[in-house]
Write a structure and sequence with these properties.
about 25% strand, binds flavin-adenine dinucleotide, globular, Uridine Diphospho-n-acetylenolpyruvylglucosamine Reductase, domain 3, eight-stranded antiparallel sheet, about 450 residues, Vanillyl-alcohol Oxidase, Chain A, domain 3
């Protein structure tokens, strides 16, 4: 490998970080995982990405591609392989003012995007955390604060520039390489390295954002009322309900309804939000008008050795009451996982399930359970978690790749229904027949 690395060094314009160098200690980590890669490459240009891909393929080394590094399974690092960290490719440029078209480097974070677009009165339907990467979040979905009005982050993506496994640069859009464009919208990192995304942004300045909290004892009624309200509420309202927050008392923690009303008209906002205030005994309410960029929070980096195990599923309309009933019970149990239930539906459901490789369009809700702690604690909680998921199994479907620590074949089958997987396999065969891009919820070329 060392001679290949010397050859790479000749033309590579970015950083090459190897064990023993001062920067290696931080470069080897992604946010939720640590590894011991043979080297970390930080390309400074698309040409560097091509060179990095050629180097990893030629050396036969395992390849991790790191965007924002927030992936739960820790695909952004590895042992003994190559990491291509896209952090330097974070340029954000408005390319068409009239059509609100924005070009974003494949290693940018959503906080950088929000800060760059705010002065232009624009925002993109993304996520809720500044440090999360545009790459990972978009390629697998993107459920954020504008999801009911504008859909997933990938629904606002109009083109991508991709370095494929053979080192070629390919553009994908509805007109150019449309099958690759279909696959990139949900297929995760399977198809290549996206060096730049193009999105349509949405005119936005201030929005109503905050949370309304109710006592834990009222969780069951609040959750049912919340889900009923969202069915008819204006799509400007997007919301997440959380239960059993371990930092706020676990089973005793208030049930919190977090929300964004995507607009600055106080009367319209009140019409959408007041029915939530009437769902129970309000113990806290900090909903306020604020700049849209301020709705994103800073992410937490857990200390080394602390694992975060998250699992997700979708809920169709007919199963909503039963699932929320079970989740309220689980939240009140002795050692509950942290539970977050996100409203989807709206604009997400208006896109046909076959239009993108993200297929779970029919769901009304997506929820996650998360346990955290040192390995023995997480292992000890596993049987209880499995019992919870066994109770839920007949009422839920699929899995959302962006909130899924595990990456077994069963998990991949939950993310991709059979017809989606088959179509993805065909695109994978064309663009990555040797499965160079395997550190993801992997679609096998064969
Ligand atoms: C604190 C926190 C908050 C979150 N909030 C939300 C939320 O509000 N909504 C939501 O939908 N999700 C959310 N997520 C989940 C998040 O979308 C996923 O963790 C996602 O994988 C993170 O992307 P990343 O680029 O930061 O991670 P990485 O670990 O860098 O990448 C994840 C995967 O994407 C691939 N990848 C990344 N960039 C590229 C690229 N440019 N080209 C090709 N492949 C690439 C990687 O190879 C890897 O397989 C959150 C996660 C955390 C930890």
């Amino acid at each position: 490998m060392s001679s290949a690395l010397e050859t790479l060094r000749r033309d590579f314009g970015g950083d090459i970080i190897e064990p023993g160098e001062a920067e290696y200690e931080s470069a080897r980590r992604s946010v939720l995982a640590s590894g011991s890669p043979a080297c970390v490459l930080r390309p400074g240009s698309v040409g560097d990405v091509q060179a990095g891909v050629g180097f990893a393929a030629g050396a036969g080394l395992s390849l991790s591609v790191r965007g924002g590094g927030h992936g739960f399974p820790g695909f952004g690092t590895n042992d003994d392989g190559v990491v291509i960290d896209l952090g330097k490719l974070a340029n954000i440029e408005i390319v068409d003012k009239d059509r609100h078209r924005v070009r974003i480097g494949g290693g940018a974070t959503w906080g950088q995007v929000a800060a760059a677009l705010a002065p232009h009165g624009l925002a993109i339907s993304s996520g809720d955390t500044k440090s999360v990467g545009v790459g990972g979040l978009t390629l697998a979905g993107g459920i954020g604060w504008k999801v009911r009005k504008y859909g997933l982050a990938l629904d606002s993506m109009v083109a991508a520039e991709v370095v494929t496994a053979n080192g070629e640069v390919v553009r994908a859009s509805a007109e150019e390489n449309p099958e690759l464009f279909w696959a990139l919208r949900g297929g995760g990192g399977n198809l290549g390295i996206v060096t730049a995304f193009e999105f349509t942004a949405h005119p936005t300045t201030d929005v109503f954002h905050g949370r309304i909290a109710f006592p834990a004892s009222e969780a069951a009624g609040v959750l049912q009322g919340w889900a009923d309200h969202l069915r008819t509420a204006p799509e400007e309202l997007t919301s997440i309900a959380t239960l059993a927050n371990p930092l706020a008392g676990g089973p005793e923690a208030p049930v919190e309804i977090h929300m964004v009303f995507d607009g600055d008209d106080p009367e319209l906002a009140a019409q959408a939000i007041d029915p939530i205030r009437r769902l129970g005994t309000v113990i806290d309410d900090d909903v306020a008008l604020k700049p849209v960029a301020d709705t994103l929070v800073d992410g937490l980096t857990p200390p080394p050795g602390i694992l975060l195990v998250t699992r997700s599923a979708f809920v169709d309309r007919e199963s909503v009451p039963e699932v929320l009933r079970i989740l309220a019970e689980v939240g009140a149990s002795e050692r509950p996982p942290f539970i977050a239930v996100r409203s989807v539906g709206g604009a997400v459901s208006r896109v046909p399930g076959s239009a993108t490789a993200y297929a779970h369009r029919q769901a009304e809700l997506m929820f996650t359970t998360t346990t955290a702690g040192p390995k023995p604690v997480v292992e000890a909680a596993r049987p209880a978690m499995e019992a919870i998921w066994a109770r839920l199994a007949s009422h839920v479907n699929g899995a959302y790749a962006n909130f899924l620590t595990s990456a077994t074949e069963e998990d991949v089958a939950a993310i991709y229904p059979p017809e989606t997987y088959e179509r993805l396999t065909a695109v994978k065969r064309r663009y990555d027949p040797g499965n160079l891009f395997a550190r993801n919820h992997n679609v096998r070329p064969q």
